[in-house]
Design goal:
This protein is of the alpha/beta class. It has one domain: 3-Layer(aba) Sandwich (Rossmann fold). It contains 17 helices and eight strands. The longest helix is centred in the first third of the chain and has 19 residues. Bound molecules: S-adenosylmethionine (SAM). S-adenosylmethionine binds next to loops.
Length: about 425
């Protein structure tokens, strides 16, 4: 498509999305600072074509990845946060499964529900005859997802155990015992994707199962509950799965079968403040980067997920190391020059990310200048222009109240900046 046509198309979009679009993805794992699926959906459809590779280097829970798969693109995502990576992997794996086999997709969820209900019919149960169906599905998924589920599990899961000291100060003892028993059973499953699914389900629910149900900031700031409330674990899981399945059924997957004849999703846990090597793995070049980099001084992405980290067996020390690498963390806001440091780390990360794309578009979404963070957008823009990219399109949009509240920040507007290199 001609550049001028793309530009006219971009101008016609209502970037505030005042009318909700049907059929887009809804991610069931909460996370602060996510963007609505409608943002990557519109960008993907305007800037790329079916089968293209899209790269989101700051992928969070995988909103861009999910829309990319839904719309029949291949996608590569990276994030420092292993919980975000887990979400991208499991959610997109399920979408890919729905796209290539509705039958397997429905069977997977039937087994999940039976497993939660402790039905002896569940083919996931270890005591049953060889779980052929789950293993067939695993093979299918391993052809589309990279790394394989077993390898990915080694990357994100440490020493999973729920009845641990760290969680005792957040969750009612009886709920914790139920959770622990549930996890132990889930870990006996043969399919690594099924085990990852249950880690994802626990991680999605653990904050609401705790007795601290105020904003994520309370978890990040270690404000422990004063009194404990018992929560029935299987009822939480059942409700979550039913809602999740309902929303996946409504998701309109537009991918065609040719796409699923090879890898469609690559997920890396990667720190952009390091200089470690990173490979794209796709044999076709990246066509667009679509990303929402971390906001400066606004959010603690990692600490907000503290309970999920405990559930996967991360120690305080392991969490602290990750936190020290987080670009722009809210926790760092009292450091001298924190905004400048954020902006410089961001610009340097973007410079390295841009090297993965020879020609095409880079779309980045950052806080609007009214929020005192224009230095981030300015340094990023300077860096991209120095690397041969030209400004192509820019638009401001309002962030919905829900997201603002969830993010615990006062940021209510952001800027979508698109760059082009031919
Ligand atoms: C605004 S969020 C992205 C949210 C995403 N668009 C979504 O909808 O889920 C920014 C992301 O940058 C990640 N991040 C922060 N520092 C990083 C680093 N050093 N390397 C890689 N990712 C980092 C955070 O973990 C967070 O997930």
């Amino acid at each position: 498509m001609k550049k001028s046509t793309i530009a006219s198309q971009l101008k016609l979009i209502d970037w505030d999305f005042s009318v909700a679009q049907k059929g887009v993805t809804t991610l069931p794992h909460w996370y602060p600072g996510t963007f609505t699926s409608q943002v990557p959906s519109a960008l993907i459809q305007s800037l790329t074509r079916h089968g293209d590779v899209i790269f989101d280097p700051f992928s969070g829970v995988g909103t861009t990845a999910a829309e990319a798969i839904r719309l029949g693109r291949r996608v590569w995502v990276t994030d420092l946060n292993p919980i975000g990576a887990l979400s991208s992997y499991v959610f997109c794996g399920l979408l890919a499964l729905k796209a290539c086999s509705e039958k397997d997709f429905e069977a997977f969820f039937k087994n999940v529900v039976d497993f939660i209900d402790e039905s002896s019919q569940s083919i996931f149960c270890k005591d049953e005859a060889i779980d052929e169906h789950a293993l067939d599905m695993q093979q299918y998924l391993d052809g589309m997802l990279s790394p394989s589920s077993r390898r990915f599990e080694e990357v994100v899961v440490k020493r999973p155990q729920l009845n641990n000291e760290a969680l005792e100060s957040w969750i009612h003892k009886s709920s914790l015992l139920e959770l622990d028993e549930f996890l132990k059973k889930a870990l006996t499953l043969q399919s690594p994707f099924a085990r990852l699914f249950f880690h994802y389900m626990i991680s999605s629910n653990i904050r609401s199962m705790s007795s601290q149900v105020k904003s994520w900031g309370h978890i990040a700031d270690n404000v422990k509950p004063k009194a404990f409330t018992y929560k029935h674990v299987r009822s939480y899981f059942k409700k979550w799965v039913v809602r999740f399945l309902g929303s996946l059924r409504k998701t309109e997957v537009r991918a065609n079968n040719n796409l699923f004849d090879g890898m469609v999703l690559r997920v890396d846990v990667y720190d952009w403040s390091s200089s470690d090597d990173l490979l794209s793995y796709y044999d076709i070049p990246v066509s667009a980067i679509i990303t929402s980099p971390p906001y400066g001084d606004a959010i603690d992405y990692l600490y907000s997920q503290k309970l999920s980290f405990y559930s996967l067996g991360y120690t305080e020390e392991e969490i602290k190391i990750l936190v020290s690498r987080e670009i722009g963390a809210r926790r760092k806001r009292f450091n001298k020059d924190s905004r400048r440091v954020w902006a410089e780390e961001l610009a340097s990360a973007v410079e390295r990310q841009a090297k993965f794309i020879e020609t095409g578009f880079i779309a980045a979404i950052l806080p609007h200048k009214n929020h005192g963070r224009e230095i981030g957008l300015n340094l990023m823009r300077e860096q991209l222009e120095l690397s041969g990219w030209s400004a192509f399109f820019e638009v401001d949009r309002s962030i919905s109240q829900k997201r603002t509240r969830q993010s615990w920040t006062s940021i209510k507007q952001e800027t979508i900046s698109i760059f082009y290199k031919g």
